[in-house]
Amino acid sequence: MRLTGERPLEGATPDSLLAFHDAGYREVIARLGTGRVLDVGCGMGDETVRLAGANREVVGVDYSPETALDAASSFGGADQWFLAMDGSELGFAPKAFDAVCSSHIIEHLSAPEAHVAELARVLRPDGDAFVITPNRPADFENPFHVYLFEPPELDSLLRVFFDEVEVLGLEGSTQLHADFAARRASGERLLRLDVLGLRKKLPRSWYVFGYERALPIVYDLLGTDRTGIGSGIDASHFFVTDSIESTTPGLFAIARSPRR
Predict the structure, then answer these.
(1) Closest listed residue to residue 205, CA positions, set 146, 149, 141
(2) What predicted TM-score, i.e. pTM, was given to this entire model?
(3) Which of 188, 174, 172 lies closest to 135 in space, CA to CA?
């Protein structure tokens, strides 16, 4: 798989972003019970397999058939399955899962309400849904992020489909914030080269096409010191908090009691 900016890749994506994903799954794992677990947007499956455990079956789904096949080839087994499926139209029966995880998926969808409706539909009445997404004020421009949330907005959307919702912050250490700030500064300097704002006037598909091809070149030009690749930042630099600031990198939501 090549680097496009849509999916995190070990050795190609900044360590802090890899850690962001790792920390989210860590928090999900800490709250999992037994039964069937669905991971929507499983990608290559390397995070999904972390959800496996005693008396637990895991199903990972991804919109890309090729990616789902690669995940199945690498990690499929007796209690772990990988399928190609649209996160807004899941091909499972109602109440099929004891827990569902949506990690860094909802921000990619132009109609996030359809995705949340599906999470609620396939979840059992006593199950838990976990939604992890960037905190809008702290996120940096990314053409793959089409719908970002602040805490009240995420809470409001989830409450349409669930009776119980808790939105927490996925906060970072001082070192993590320094890394984010440095990469943001580098990105903003590059964006200032687009003095006419042409990227926002192009059709989105053109912008994404250019972004996918420019990102690896930009990372090479900036070097590891400025991209944060090889910085050593890991999931231990993230923690969950009730206090969410505009600089808090991520949101970690837990939704229960799906509405029927």
Answers:
(1) 146
(2) 0.92
(3) 172
Task: Specify the pairing of strand 80-84 against strand 97-103.
Answer: unpaired
- Look up residue 138 and give its two tokens: 């702290």
What single letter denotes the amino acid at residue 63?
A: Y
What's the rounded Cα separation, in Å, for the pair 62 and 51? 16
Residues 56 and 32 sit within 8 Å (Cβ to Cβ)? yes
Mean pLDDT by groups of 10 residues along the chain of 260 residues: 60 86 97 97 94 94 94 91 95 98 95 97 98 95 90 98 98 95 82 80 81 70 66 95 97 96
Dist. CA 30–CA 252, nearest whole Å: 13
| Residue 248 token pair | 């808090």
Q: For residue 88, what pLDDT is reported? A: 94
> Which domains are delineated in the chain?
15-258 (3.40.50.150)
Query: E strands, 104-150, where?
Result: 123-134
The whole-angstrom distance between residue 221's C-alpha and the CA centroid of its chain comes to 26
The predicted pLDDT at position 199 comes to 83
Q: Give the β-pairing of 238-241 and 162-172.
A: antiparallel
Q: Closest by alpha carbon to 39, among 132, 116, 103?
A: 103
- By CB atoms closer than 10 A (0-12, 13-18, 19+), residue 144 is middle
Q: State the pLDDT at residue 225.
A: 64
Q: Could you tell me if 167 and 240 are in contact, meaning their C-beta atoms sit under 8 angstroms apart?
A: no
Query: Residue 59's closest CA among 130, 72, 256, 132?
Result: 72
Distance in angstroms (rounded) separating the CA atoms of residues 132 and 188: 25
CA gap 24, 235 in Å, rounded: 8
What the block records as the tokens of 216 is 């690896």
